[in-house]
From TrEMBL:
GO terms for molecular function: oxidoreductase activity, acting on the CH-NH group of donors, NAD or NADP as acceptor. PANTHER family: FLAVIN REDUCTASE (NADPH). It comes from Spiroplasma sabaudiense Ar-1343. This is Putative NADH-flavin reductase. Residues 7-199 form the NAD(P)-binding domain.
Amino acid sequence: MNIFVIGANGRQGKLLVKEAINQGYQVTAVTKSELIEKHQEKVNVLKKDLFDLTTEDLKLADVVIDAFGIFDPEKLDQHQTSLSHLTDILSKTNKRLMIVGGAGSLFVNPEKTIRLLDTPEFPKDYQPLAQSMAIAFENLQKVNDVKWTYLSPAAIFDPETQATGQYQIGEDNVILNQKGQSYVTYGDYAKAMIDEIKNQKFINQRFTVIGE
């Protein structure tokens, strides 16, 4: 099985590439710049901008992982336009699209009427980013001709701490670990996503993950 990772040079993208290799998948890194990683010799590289990708470019992919991220306040709408572009070029191909999503759109009440980004505790600085990603997710839910999966991290998404290899999964609501925290490392998030390729529990659904 060939997994294409878009945004393979990003912090999360690198760990997704590493985890996919560790699980025995063939990996193609899609990146605008040269792939700089110690496992480079094990990875095919497609050097191309996400917005220039075509259906033909992805013809050898079984799974496409979208790890694209943008933090420039002037370009936050690219979370929406990039995902729209990917669903367009993967339309009716039966290839699986897996998206590194945001936590802000997770619900905090059983009725699923209040999102994490709507709560007073949500950091104001992250509000525009979370809102743009939430809109992208809302649009994705209307797509019915692509086999997609959206993985929301925990509220605390830790890029620094070593992965434990252990995680718990939920669906549309924020979940807490034994310490009462919504927390996950980048590494454990990557494992959860790559595991889902085999498990196939969340086709055309969103799920979330927490660590210890």
